[in-house]
Design brief:
alpha+beta; 2 domains; two-stranded parallel sheet; D-aminoacyl-tRNA deacylase activity; Daa-tRNA_deacyls_DTD; EC 3.1.1.96; DTD-like_sf
Length: about 140
């Protein structure tokens, strides 16, 4: 599960915690520093504002579901649908504001696209080989 966290400063970067590289690498997602890549000893924050890059936000309310019989899902311990929609809308608004304030992203025509909270989403993929997806919008 990928969790999104709002941070106050988009451009703040992490520095190396040690001089020795480690073989463990990590990838962490958040809206401001879209991913952190590197080894556990030396992490570097890479922001979509610095790349620049566009952002696609897809709400995944189904991640909190528990399977029942007959392929049905039960959603306990989640927020009310109206609150989930409000929080997702706030996330989209915050990302759009940060993107519009970035001169580099504005110059390159980068944008924030999003799905609709509460809609049924379905994807079907059939592949005999390793699969990579490139989404352009």
């Amino acid at each position: 599960m990928i969790s999104l966290c709002l941070h106050a400063d988009l451009k703040r970067a992490r520095t190396c915690r040690a001089n020795k590289p480690s073989s463990r690498s990590s990838l962490v997602f958040s809206p401001h520093a879209l991913f952190v890549a590197g080894t556990s000893a030396c992490l570097h924050t890479v922001s979509v504002l610095d790349l620049p890059g566009s952002v696609l936000l897809v709400p995944q309310d189904s991640l909190v579901g528990e399977p029942l019989v007959n392929r049905r899902m039960q959603y306990k311990d989640r927020c009310e649908p109206w609150l989930g929609a409000q929080l997702f809308s706030s996330l989209v608004g915050a990302c759009r504001q940060l993107m519009s304030e970035s001169a580099k992203c504005t110059k390159e025509g980068m944008k924030v696209e999003h799905g609709a909270y509460g809609q049924k989403q379905e994807i079907s993929i059939r592949s005999l080989e390793p699969l990579s997806l490139l989404l352009e919008f």
